[in-house]
């Protein structure tokens, strides 16, 4: 048997009587006459199947059940009074929940700063952060499991079916194991790099950037020797430190200070430019939830100079 749904008005009337311990004064505070108030309390007691007040001609006292119900009834009324403000805050994007996917490269510096600042400004917005590669984020967006995601891609190749905000643009640098002879040079020429075995992420992870990196070799009339594939940038750098090969990585990966790995700029050769990469916040084309709109508005000033 299901419990009865009790009108909020009855709880308000109960609290008024419980605080005044006088039906006449409680009725006056509620701007009503005493008989309807007495009837309302009787109705509440019937619904609850408990007696809330001991009444005599001289006094009104709370029963044990009534005393136990008073604090949660006050809390219920306080939460009900807060609902209109909460509704307005939710519509303004200042209350709610935001689910963000992100690639590891944005997590080295920018994302922690943005999350810290956004939480300080909007403490009533819950943030769920999920580290995932671009292909996984696209699936999560399609299934509605995340609201937006930070994705790595080649310049100008943000996923076309989504809205996007470019948040960073940076060059690619070469990660080299410290003991490798190439690490002894402050900068490198492309000809020094082309014959080195390559550690790279699979094509499905970031197709546009994978193609751009292979384009470096194709422009020089060469085919890269792919020694190993790995999904995460940290894993790629770790494999470089183990001597499996060199890797083209975003410059921000320098902040992943893996002992035994050096990062070097490589000068482009004629016909083989060194591509850069971008990170964009992407989200579905339908209307963004208010909390996402608020987050986009928050990070836009910080991305204006990074995206140039």
Please describe what this structure looks like.
It is rod-shaped, with a radius of gyration of 32 Å. It has 308 residues and is an alpha/beta fold. Helices cover 40% and strands 23% of the residues. The protein has helices spanning 8-20, 23-29, 34-48, 64-91, 110-121, 134-143, 207-219, 233-241, 290-306, and strands at 53-55, 60-62, 96-102, 125-131, 148-153, 163-177, 187-189, 198-200, 226-229, 247-250, 261-267, 276-283. The chain has nine helices and twelve strands. The mean pLDDT is 92. The strands form three sheets. Strands 3, 4, 5, 6, 7, 10, 11 and 12 form an eight-stranded mixed beta sheet that branches. The chain folds into three domains: 8-91, Arc Repressor Mutant, subunit A; 96-167 and 279-306, 3-Layer(aba) Sandwich (D-Maltodextrin-Binding Protein, domain 2), CATH 3.40.190; 169-277, Periplasmic binding protein-like II (D-Maltodextrin-Binding Protein, domain 2, 3-Layer(aba) Sandwich), CATH 3.40.190. α1 (8-20) crosses α4. β3 (96-102), α5 (110-121) and β4 form a beta-alpha-beta unit.
Fold topology:
Blueprint: H1 8-20, H2 23-29, H3 34-48, E1 53-55, E2 60-62, H4 64-91, E3 96-102, H5 110-121, E4 125-131, H6 134-143, E5 148-153, E6 163-177, E7 187-189, E8 198-200, H7 207-219, E9 226-229, H8 233-241, E10 247-250, E11 261-267, E12 276-283, H9 290-306
Parallel strand pairs: 3-4, 3-5, 7-11, 8-9
Antiparallel strand pairs: 1-2, 5-12, 6-10, 6-11, 6-12
Helix pairs in contact: 1-2, 1-3, 1-4
């Amino acid at each position: 048997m299901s419990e009865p749904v009790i009108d909020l008005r009855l709880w308000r009337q109960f609290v008024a009587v419980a605080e005044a311990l006088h039906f006449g004064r409680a009725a006056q505070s509620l701007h009503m006459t005493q008989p309807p108030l007495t009837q309302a309390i009787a109705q509440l007691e019937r619904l609850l199947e408990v007696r809330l007040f001991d009444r005599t001609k001289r006094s009104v006292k709370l029963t044990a059940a009534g005393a136990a119900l008073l604090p949660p009834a006050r809390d219920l009324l306080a939460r009900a009074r807060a609902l209109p403000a909460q509704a307005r805050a939710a519509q303004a994007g200042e209350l709610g929940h935001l689910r963000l996917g992100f690639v590891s490269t944005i997590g080295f510096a920018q994302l922690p700063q943005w999350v810290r600042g956004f939480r300080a400004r909007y403490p009533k917005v819950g943030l769920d952060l999920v580290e995932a590669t671009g292909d996984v984020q696209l699936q999560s967006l399609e299934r509605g499991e995340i609201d937006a995601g930070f994705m790595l891609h080649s310049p100008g190749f943000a996923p076309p079916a989504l809205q996007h905000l470019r948040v960073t643009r940076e060059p690619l640098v070469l990660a080299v194991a410290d003991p490798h002879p190439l690490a002894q040079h402050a900068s490198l020429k492309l000809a020094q790099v082309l014959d080195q075995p390559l550690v790279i992420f699979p094509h499905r992870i970031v197709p546009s950037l994978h193609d751009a990196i292979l384009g470096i070799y194709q422009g020089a009339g060469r085919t890269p020797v792919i020694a190993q594939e790995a999904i995460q940038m940290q894993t790629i750098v770790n494999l470089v430190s183990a001597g499996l090969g060199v890797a083209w990585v975003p410059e921000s990966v320098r902040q992943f200070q893996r002992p035994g790995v050096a990062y070097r700029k490589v000068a482009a050769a004629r016909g083989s430019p060194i591509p850069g990469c971008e990170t964009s916040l992407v989200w579905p084309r339908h209307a963004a939830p208010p909390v996402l709109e608020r987050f986009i508005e928050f990070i836009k000033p910080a991305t204006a100079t990074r995206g140039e």
